[in-house]
C-alpha cells in the first residue's frame, strides 16, 4: 500500500515514518507538515492509506478530508490528541484512529484493521463511512469532556500533556520548553506555533521568549527597576522584560479587586 503522512508535529511524523518502515507492505510516498500542500498532492495522486492529523495550523484534518474526491478516497487513519471521550466518535466507525502518543503495538493493530478494510471496502463505502464519522466528530468536538492535549518529549520519550497543566512556554533555540509543575518537556517548534497549541488557556507573554499560563500564577512582586517577578504553582520564578512590562501590568490590574486601573 502506498502511504502518506500529514501531520504538522515533527515528532508524530517521525514515529509514523519509523513504524511504516517496519511494515513490509507499506511504501511511504509522501510526508507533509503543511496540510494545504499535502491536499494538492493527494488530489493529483491519492495514496492507498492516509495518516491524517486532526489539529493542524491553517487547515484541520477534518477540513482536508472533506475536500478529497469521494471517488478516489484513500483509507484514512486519523491521528489525534483528543481524549477518550471525544474518541467515542471513532469507535462507531470502521475508520481507525491513533491517539497520541501511540506505540508500535497500537500502530500494528491499526494496520490489521486497515488491511481487512482494503479487501472489503469500496469507494462508496469509504465515502459513506467518512461522512458519518465527520458528522459525529463535529458534534463531539464541542463537548466539554474533550480536553486539549499536546505531545512533548522528555528523557528520550514522548509524553501526552494536558494543555491546562502547562504553566510556562519558553523558547530554547529550535525548541520550546514546557513546564508542568517541576517537570520540563520540549517540543521542536517555534514559540508562535506552541502558543497556538495552548490558546485554550489564558496565556500571557511576559517577554519575547516566554509565556505563562495565568491560571497557574501564585505570587507577584516587583524588581527595583519595575519589572514583574512571577511565581508559578510549580515553584518556578520568571521575570518580565522591560518591553512587556506594561502588558503585564495591564493584565494584573484587571485582576486586582478594588484597585484603580494602573495601580499594580
Explain how this protein is built.
The protein folds into two domains: 2-140, 3-Layer(aba) Sandwich (Rossmann fold); 161-255, LytTr DNA-binding domain (OB fold (Dihydrolipoamide Acetyltransferase, E2P)). The chain is elongated. The model has no long low-confidence stretch (mean pLDDT 82). Strands 2-1-3-4-5 form a five-stranded parallel β-sheet. A five-stranded antiparallel β-sheet has the order 10-9-8-12-11. It has a three-stranded antiparallel β-sheet with strand order 13-14-15, covered by helices on one side. 33% of the residues lie in helices and 29% in strands. It is built from eight helices and 15 strands. The protein is of the alpha/beta class. The longest helix has 18 residues, at 123-140. The protein has helices spanning 10-21, 35-44, 61-67, 88-91, 104-120, 123-140, 191-197, 245-255, and strands spanning 2-6, 27-32, 49-53, 75-80, 97-99, 149-154, 157-162, 168-172, 175-180, 183-188, 203-207, 210-213, 217-222, 228-232, 237-239.
Task: Determine and state the CATH class of the largest domain.
Answer: Alpha Beta
In the CATH hierarchy, what is the architecture of the largest domain at level 2?
A: 3-Layer(aba) Sandwich
CATH topology of the largest domain: Rossmann fold
* Unreliable sequence segments: none
Major sheet size, sense and barrel closure: 5 strands, parallel
Helix content: 25-40%
* Backbone shape: elongated
Q: Give the number of helices.
A: 8
Category by helix and strand content: alpha/beta
> In total, how many beta strands?
15
The CATH superfamily of the largest domain is: Response regulator
- Report the span from N to C terminus: 62 Å
Largest sheet strand order = 2-1-3-4-5
Please tell me the total number of domains. 2
Q: Kindly estimate the percentage of residues that lie in beta strands according to DSSP.
A: 25-35%
Rg (CA only): 22 Å
